[in-house]
Amino acid sequence: MAHGPAKGIGRWLFATNHKDIGTMYLWFSFAMFILGGSFAMIIRAELFAPGMQLVKPEFFNQMTTMHGLVMVFGAIMPAFVGLANWMIPLQIGAPDMALPRMNNLSFWILPFGFSLLASTLFMEGGAPNFGWTFYAPLSTTYAPDTVNFFIFGIHIIGASSIMGAINIIATVLNLRAPGMTMMKLPLFVWTWLITAFLLVAVMPVLAGAVTMMLMDINFGTSFFDAAGGGDPVLFQHIFWFFGHPEVYIIILPAFGVVSAIIPTFSRKPLFGYSSMVYATSAIAFLSFIVWAHHMFTTGMPIAGELYFMYATMLIAVPTGVKVFNWITTMFKGSLSFETPMLFAIAFVILFTFGGFTGLMLAVAPADIQYHDSYFVVGHFHYVMVAGAVFSMTAAVYYWLPKWSGKMYDETMGKVQFWIAFIGFNIAFIPQHFLGLAGMPRRYADYALQFTDWNMVSSIGAFMYGAAQLMFLYNVIRTIVAGKPTSVEKTWEGAEGLEWTLPTPAPFHTFSTPPEVK
Amino acid sequence: MAINATQKVTLKLVVAAIGMFLFAVFLMPPLYDVFCEITGIGGKTKGQYEGTEAAVDAQREVKIQFVATNNGAMPWDFSPMEYQVRVHPGEKTSVEFYARNPTSRDMVAQAIPNITPDNAAEFFHKTECFCFNQQPLKAGEETKMGLVFIVDPELPASVTTITLSYTLFDVTEATAAEVATIN
Fold first, then answer.
1. Which residue of A78, A102, A264, A381 is most buried, as measured by CB atoms within 10 A?
2. How many domains does one find in chain A?
3. Whole-angstrom distance between the N-terminal and C-terminal Cα of chain B?
């Protein structure tokens, strides 16, 4: 029974162990994070000053597109799937994921998907340049020929996500330890379960959208081509029918992580567990009926604008419940501020800020002004970066000792946090000002009056980029030369099955299911 | 037991995923078309209008502006003979568009109309329109294409100007009939 992992490369190529696959997912997503981050650095370097400095406008367009695609599909989503692979079996007392071979497949097709996507950078015509939202007809009639590589890349990445999601649902529904009822599941498991249902529902819609593009481009159909009786606005509806649930796919697991970390360092159980579960479900449901708030400027009828405006604002209610619960968990808690907690608190503050700017954007008449401006860029980086990436960073610091059996350097962790936190805000607060002043997004150049805040924003972005290299250094240093630890409960206030296991977590865990009281 | 349960869940989810894909490709586009037709959004005008002149509202005057555009690489010369007319609601008005095929090959074109503002689309009735049919022109040939319309007296009071735009598509190679149905 007790045997270790296979030797050599075969351990990884033929991996069926959830920890190995989780590790591969996490490293892959980190590699993509660095790649997408380097695209962002090129963007910010070019925007440091008005006029064209470093790159050609065509290449700049490829950078904004590839930055978005790589970060959303390559960095954030696989990172959370990796985290789910590692933590869900440990948190529900399962020996592994329910479908280990499919797990292997869903990871190993990812590098191929992203190779297809990234290879376009070196092709004639260049990488996709139509924005990560790839609106038709820009992505069909006017796209570079390499768009077909992009389409197949998205197909592969989507298939991977769907398989990952099916695996997670099957695991959570069938492999819970005896006594682990649904309402005893750790919140990270709950949020991932709901996320997985969202993925199964909308990733096929994305696949459908790119398939229709493929047909339009190569096989003479006219789904999105007015020339043949199609409608480009239809593309936007289909895209955002996928796209809005997608943003909750990205953020819900982050909610789960924060809901694990804040109670640990507050030394109090999570406030309002069941309301958290219901709020998450409510957010997931609402995400399906608000998509057209991304399209207020397409000339919707007033009734449509009103409906999508009010429905969107409604999302603030369950989200407010969650923020309230996190704050109330901290209230009168015995707080300590280790690195994971710092990132989690920063998450709560900055995500809430991003939520408020989201509310501003939900107001249809105001959105006419904000639409496609840098205000939008500022808004979604507050929820994507300070939301998803901060919580992911928190998760890595929080569980790394359990994974590796080594303790990270607390001082280094805190230094990284402060550089990231300050750099992030310097980078993205000014973008709100720029947007309100009228600077549009996705342009390689800007009018002179936007110069100062763009410089500030670029400096902040470089700081934030440096913080990520420091993060990489911290993680590698911990694994290679960190102080060994064998304490089961790395954090005295931590609760949950994963903390009953030895540290580092052995290759096989819960071969006999634990009793949950 | 556990394996069966897992297989069951997996099967259901795979079916759901495939179902969502089919929903996106085969149901969303037709549903969207039906929705646009019912609500009249998108500025698509209805087909041929069967009706006579109603009571003309001589008190009110509406400005009708015409825009003619070529789609993509369509090489024809295409323009309205008059760029703007003033009409009374209920009154039957007829205008003409000019088209010339300057190329050395015979071509077929299809004009696709669109109305701005959206809420005027259902009140703009066309009794005759070149957009109801495809327009063939031999190499070098030119023609005048007719449009007869009535602005409904029910037109919302807020609308004082209606812009009717035609985009001319090259359908020489496309299979005929289909395109004509979308007006």
1. A78
2. 1
3. 58
Tokens 């569980």 sit at which residue?
A: A399
SS3 content of chain B, % helix, strand, coil (to 5): 30, 35, 35
Q: Is A66 helix (H, G, I), strand (E, B) or coil?
A: helix
* Distance of alpha carbon A255 from alpha carbon A80, whole angstroms: 11
**Residue B96 phi, psi dihedral angles, 5° rounding:** -130, 150
Question: Distance between CA B80 and CA B60 in Å, rounded?
Answer: 24
B163 phi, psi to nearest 5 deg = -105, 125
> Nearest-CA distance from A235 to chain B in Å?
9
CB neighbours of A356 closer than 8 A, spacing ≥ 6?
none
Any A CB within 8 A of B182 CB = yes
Tokens for A126? 């260049």
3-state helix, strand, coil in chain A (%, to 5): 70, 0, 25
Which residue is associated with the tokens 């479900």?
A281
CA distance A138 to A7: 49
Q: Contact A56/A467 with Cβ under 8 angstroms? A: no
Task: Work out the pLDDT band at B123, boundaries 50, 70, 90.
Answer: confident
Is A372 within a domain? yes
Q: Kindly state the tokens that stand for A362.
A: 């939900």
Asked whether residue A51 is domain-assigned, the answer is yes
Which positions ≥6 away from A22 have C-beta within 8 Å? A82, A83, A84, A85, A86, A87
User: How far is Cα B29 from Cα B37, in angstroms, rounded to an integer?
Assistant: 12
Whether A13 is covered by a domain: the verdict is no
CATH code of the domain containing A50: 1.20.210.10
Q: Cα separation of A67 and A75, whole Å?
A: 10
A212 contacts chain B (CB < 8 A): yes
Nearest CA of chain B to the CA of A186: how many Å? 21
The fraction of chain B above a pLDDT of 90, given in percent, is 35
DSSP H stretches of helix in A99-146: 100-119
Residues of chain B contacting residue A231, judged by C-beta atoms under 8 Å apart: 32-33, 36, 42
Q: Specify the amino acid at residue B138.
A: K
Confirm or reject contact between A297 and chain B (CB < 8 A).
no
- Report the largest interatomic distance among the alpha carbons of chain A, rounded to a whole angstrom: 69
Confidence (pLDDT) at A266: 97
Please, which pLDDT band fits residue B131 given cuts at 50, 70 and 90?
A: confident
The predicted-structure confidence for A222-238, as pLDDT tens digits, reads as follows 899 876 778 899 999 99
Q: Are A384 and A347 in contact (CB under 8 A)?
A: no
Is pLDDT of A451 > 70?
A: yes
Query: Active-site residue A58, yes or no?
Result: no
Rounded Cα distance between A71 and A41, Å, is: 13
SS3 A137: coil
pLDDT tens across A11-25, in order? 999 999 999 999 999
The one-letter code for the residue type at A449 is Q
Predicted-assembly ipTM surpassing the 0.85 threshold: yes
Q: Is the pLDDT of residue B183 over 50?
A: no
Q: Is residue A7 part of a domain?
A: no
Please check whether residue A169 touches B, CB under 8 A. yes
Q: Domain containing A133: what range?
A: 18-500
